[in-house]
Design goal:
Strand content: 35-45%
Distance between the termini: 53 Å
Number of helices: 1
Structural class: mainly beta
Mean pLDDT: 78
Shape: globular
Low-confidence stretches: 1-26
Order of helices and strands: HEEEEEEEEE
Number of strands: 9
Radius of gyration: 21 Å
């Protein structure tokens, strides 16, 4: 009887351990970045952002991506414009990303049709602590190229609240 119980216990432990290993999340096969929160400058809220970008072709040599972006300024620009755009490029290096695209809709005609770039950093800490965000607008340039601003350039600013998630699917060298 003791041998039967011991065998059952070993079997149960084996099943439990294999179930835990099987529950681990799969490694993503494409880069992505997403986030929402409040942008800051000097500790003051200057805008609310929301973005999602996913690598659209899985090729490391290109920056092709799909997704969307929105931003509502709070005192940063005259008139506090709202911007909405379509993501066209994504470049990820570790926990840093550049997301770019075209401003499709805004209440400030200066930015309509121009490019936007987001420089973001995912600290990996809970509740977005240490995450950084930077918005750059290029109104005269309609075609965003994430190669213009490599990840980590531009000096992102800490977000006041929210969370940014950056996933680099590139296998380690």
């Amino acid at each position: 009887m003791k041998k039967v119980l011991a065998a059952l216990l070993v079997g149960l432990i084996s099943l439990t351990l294999s179930g835990v290993a099987g529950a681990a999340p799969a490694t993503p096969d494409v880069d992505f970045a997403k986030g929402r929160g409040t942008d800051s400058f000097g500790g003051q809220a200057i805008g609310a952002f929301n973005f999602s970008a996913t690598d659209s072709d899985g090729l490391p040599a290109t920056d092709a991506a799909t997704g969307n972006f929105s931003y509502h300024a709070k005192g940063r620009f005259s008139g506090n414009p709202s911007l909405k755009g379509t993501v066209t490029c994504l470049r990820v290096e570790g926990s840093l990303a550049v997301v770019g695209g075209t401003v499709d809709n805004t209440d400030d005609p200066t930015f309509e049709g121009g490019s936007f770039y987001l420089g973001v950093s995912d600290s990996g800490l809970p509740k977005g602590e240490g995450d950084e965000f930077l918005l750059r607008l290029d109104p005269g340039f309609p075609n965003a190229s994430c190669g213009l601003y490599p990840p980590g350039t531009g000096g992102g600013r800490p977000i006041l609240k929210g969370d940014i998630l950056v996933i680099d699917a590139t296998p380690p060298a």
